[in-house]
Amino acid sequence: MDSYSSDYGTEYSMAKPSRELLWLWLIPLTALLMYRWWGPALPLSPRGENVPQISYTWMLRHLWASGDALRGWNPLLLAGEPTATARIYHLHLGLAGISLLTGLSPEWLFKLSQWLSSFLGALGMYAYLRQRKRPPQASLVGGAIFALFPPRIALTVESLYVSILWSGLPWALWAYERTRLRPPLCIRPAVIWGLFLCWIALTGPQWFLLFLPILVAYIVLRELGDWWGSKPPRPGLWTTLKRVLLTCAIGALVLTGLCLFYYLPTILEIKLLWAVRYNQPFPGVSRWSVPWKLLGYLLKQRWLPGFSPLGWEAVRLFPDISWYLGIIPSILVLLGLLRFHRWKQDLPLSGTLLITLLLLAGASIPHNPIYALV
Asked: In angstroms, rounded to a whole number, what is the distance separating the alpha carbons of residues 161 and 218?
């Protein structure tokens, strides 16, 4: 079902994945991606963080059983810590509670949550591309690419909350596309958009901060490209701006209201937490430059037989070692830009891709304006 908003010169597509059976192919695709996970053991991530995550979830399961899971102070976390300031405690508490209710071990819950987040991420990209009027076949390919790249995020480092956050990114873009209606029709979609932003903020605060400048760039490029490319008579720029401001205000209110339970205790106790020491010295010493020759050498070695990132100290210096995977979607985007007559549709994603590459390059680019923001 499609409707047309003449006020803003944009088509509004009600994407309904449930009516398009092609998206069902994403279920076996994401399951096959994890085919090594379906055995009795849980694969170890390269940095080994899923071992303490599993232990922590088992501990919370025992606390649920004893009735102490929701107490204000957790004496078993490090040397004791307020429950409300533990890292994504709500996610671990939820998995531990589900484990106790269903009888499934935390190991199997990790596997199932990993698969579910991969599938939801792929489905979200499929829905977003359908919302942008892409055909089902192309949307299926886009969902598959999102599920398969980068595998580092999906199946290795910090394999619980990062993968759940990653799956929410395309849904945030999909939800914003549905807000592009004249007031007051945009109010309800804006509330839904705020819910998806909350999904991201509550599963990965650090990633959410990195996502904000990319999201802002997407909104600006999307609205300017649509306004400039619309047929005369164009809608008033101030009319479009008022709609965007209203949408963002509603989304921010929903986001802030639902996230207060998580962020407010940390803000109130910031001086008592280790984060205060992290925020002071680390930004000054972590913005160091990586020589481009070193990046090129590592890229070359990456594709040689027998390459192991864990055996390279230089590679282990990068918290996000998936930087080389960004080359593949970049080439695909450049190929898509060859159809320049569709620049209005390509501009938002192309612009956000450029900003993302600047974020990844970091201090390697002198006076990098995007990296300086975060």
From this structure: 24
Terminal alpha carbon distance of the chain: 40
Residues 6+ apart with CB under 8 A from 127: 15, 17, 139, 170, 171, 174
**Phi, psi dihedrals of residue 306, rounded to the nearest 5°:** 85, 5
How, if at all, do strands 10-13 and 81-82 pair?
unpaired
With residue 82 as reference, give the H or E element that holds it.
strand 81-82
Query: What one-character DSSP code corresponds to residue 71?
Result: -
Per-residue confidence of the chain (374 residues) as pLDDT tens digits?
333 343 343 443 444 545 568 889 999 988 988 887 888 877 776 667 778 888 888 988 998 998 888 877 777 766 676 666 666 778 888 899 999 999 999 989 888 888 898 899 999 999 999 998 888 888 898 898 888 765 555 455 566 777 888 899 999 999 999 999 988 999 999 999 999 999 999 888 778 888 888 899 899 988 888 877 777 776 777 888 999 999 999 999 999 999 888 888 777 776 665 555 545 544 444 445 566 677 677 667 666 666 565 555 555 444 444 444 455 556 666 666 666 556 666 777 777 777 777 776 666 666 777 766 66
For residue 14, how many other CB atoms are within 10 A of its CB?
Answer: 10
How many C-beta atoms lie closer than 10 Å to residue 205's C-beta? 17
Nearest to 26 by CA among 185, 194, 142, 200: 142
In the block, tokens 């501009």 appear at 347
Neighbours of 178 (CB within 10 A): 19
User: How far, in Å, CA of 118 to CA of 199, rounded?
Assistant: 15
71: left (phi over 0), alpha (psi -120 to 50) or beta: beta
